[in-house]
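Problem 12. The chain below contains 227 residues. Write out its predicted structure in token notation.
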Amino acid sequence: MEYLQTADFWIGLVKIVWINIILSGDNAVVIAMAARSLPPAQQKKAVLFGSGAAVVLRIALTVVAARLLALPYLQIVGGALLLWIGVQLLGDEDDGGGEEKQYGSMFAAVRTILLADLVMSLDNVIAVAAAAQGSMLLLILGLAISIPLVIFGSTLMIKLMERFPIIITLGAALIGWVGGETIASDTALSGVLAARPWLHYAGAAAGAFFVVAYGKWQQRRAAAAVQ
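Solution.
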């Protein structure tokens, strides 16, 4: 209890919450895109379950993130997974099947949120762990406080996507950017990037272009099949 009354505790807590505010923007976009096609009641459940489970996942990742990032080719695989998720979210069409179909979609949305957060959080949790300075209590409290921030951000993004559909494309581009950036950051490519630093941004831009271009192509193909 004495630790809770120290300045170090409160300074560390503020740092973790602030880091999560900064780093959770892309996660909120993923959650919003995964949940946007669900009925309103299921949207709330998907956002709540996805956000809560993602934060728990971050706590678990904090223990092993630094070691995982050192493994060659892991970020290449993770980045490729993010590109696939971005394409699927952009090319996803509303399913009007029925009650069973809708519930299946909600669980698929939560699964997508967790997969994307698993990849996107690997490097983010290192910053959070550094701010916690080895205190598991501080880490858990800081991440728990970030849950409503992510939920609010996701809910706001869903409303914006409904009003301004272009945000869906921009969100998919952001996921592609992070995916390309993740691939370019892999330790197996460190030698190449050291000689050509511009490849980091080129890889991120290529990821964004790929997700938008391929996702739009999928949308056109699906529309043509319906006609």
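Discussion. Residues 95 and 101 are 7 Å apart (CA to CA). Students who got a different answer should revisit the alignment rule from Section 12.3.
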